[in-house]
Amino acid sequence: AKPTLGASTPTANTNAGFSLSGTSADTVGVASVSVTQTKNGGSVVEITTNPPTTADGWANWSLTNLPRNPASIGSQATLDATSNGVYEYVITVTDLAGKTETTTRTVRFDKTASSVTITGPGADGSIVSSSSFSFSGSASDGSDSGVALVEYSLDAGSTWPDAVGTNSWSFNIADMAATFGAEGPKSFLVRATDNAGNTSTPQTRTFLFDTANPLVAVSGAATRDTMVAFSLAGTSSDSYGIDSIAITQSKDGGAAVAIATNGPAGTTSWTLGATTSLPRDPDNIGNHLLADGT
Predict the structure, then answer these.
(1) Residue 139's pLDDT is what?
(2) Which of 27, 187, 233, 261 is positioned for an S-S bond with 206, CB 3.0–4.6 A?
(3) Measured between alpha carbons, how far is 172 from 294 in angstroms, rounded to an integer?
(4) Cβ neighbours of residue 66 under 8 Å, at least 6 residues apart?
(5) Separation of alpha carbons 44 and 132, rounded Å
(6) Cα dist. 274→261, 263, 266, 278, 289 in Å?
């Protein structure tokens, strides 16, 4: 009969050195336990230097300091990213009659952390003005062990709740004001952990939380009567800047038409009509109507 062989099952993905151990037995006695190592489907190398050891005639055996350096099989590989890869171990027990039994164990060694990208908000200093917001991004572990977990922090790294998803991740804040407080500069952190236990350096995104509406004022009276061309001017303000001024014109209660051509100039201090006066032709909003009663 063939000998029997048992072997421990190591963690499938690891960022640390590891060992193999097991048991063997045979009715006529066990002669040896041998192990070969293959990295990334390459050459099969028998571990003949610092091989498996036993203290009880191979009833129990062990092999330490794995993974081994394929170019110097008696030495442990350098435990850094240069040794990343999938290591396969074929364990063979041979009895005194020359009969054998084998088993295989596979371990991925991965010392490289995942990369994390933040896409929502898309850039530092972006303005977030909505009452709720979905923060989002992606993570990648390349050809290594894979992204296991993405976490985020809203308190400078004190706590790390889980985001939803891994390669594509997000987390939703339903009440921005309750979470972040008053408007102003805010930030959050994101990190990823891969299946081997490597955690990436946290990525930071800053943004402006802007909840207040901007203010706008028009110089002069709100209602005017005139028989000559005129212009409009005024000011606007916001704690985090004015993006644009938009003005519409409605004649005799008709449709409101945005004055997009020859529109208002300026933001915090703006004018409309310095170049092309008011009122405008509703059918050609960029042009000034002649003051002829039409």
Answers:
(1) 98
(2) 187
(3) 56
(4) 17, 18, 19, 20, 37, 76, 87, 89, 107
(5) 57
(6) 13, 10, 12, 9, 14
Q: What is the mean pLDDT of residues 194-212?
A: 96
Cα of first residue to Cα of last residue in the chain, in angstroms, is 112
Amino acid identity, position 15: N
Q: Cis link prior to 202 (omega < 30° from 0)? A: no
How far is the C-alpha of 82 from the C-alpha of 70, rounded, in Å?
Answer: 12
Which pLDDT score is estimated for 167?
A: 98
- Amino acid letter, residue 286: G
Neighbours of 123 (CB within 10 A): 10
- CA 5 to chain CA centroid, nearest Å: 44
Mean pLDDT value of segment 14-43: 98
User: Could you give the 3-state DSSP secondary structure of residue 282?
Assistant: coil
Question: How far is 227 from 206, CA to CA, in rounded Å?
Answer: 53
Contacts of 161 (CB under 8 A, 6+ apart): 151, 152, 153, 171
Instruction: Determine how many CB atoms are found less than 10 A away from the CB of residue 121.
Output: 20
DSSP string over 118-184: EEES-STTEEE-SSSEEEEEEEE-TTSS-EEEEEEESSTTS--PBPB-SSEEEEEES-HHHHH-SSE
CA–CA distances in Å: residue 166 to residues 139, 146, 179, 213, 228: 6, 9, 23, 36, 65
Q: Which of 276, 279, 275, 273 is nearest to 227 (CA)?
A: 279
DSSP helix/strand/coil, 83: helix
| Residue type for position 22 | G
**pTM (2 decimals)?**
0.81
User: CA 160 to CA 156: how far, in whole Å?
Assistant: 9
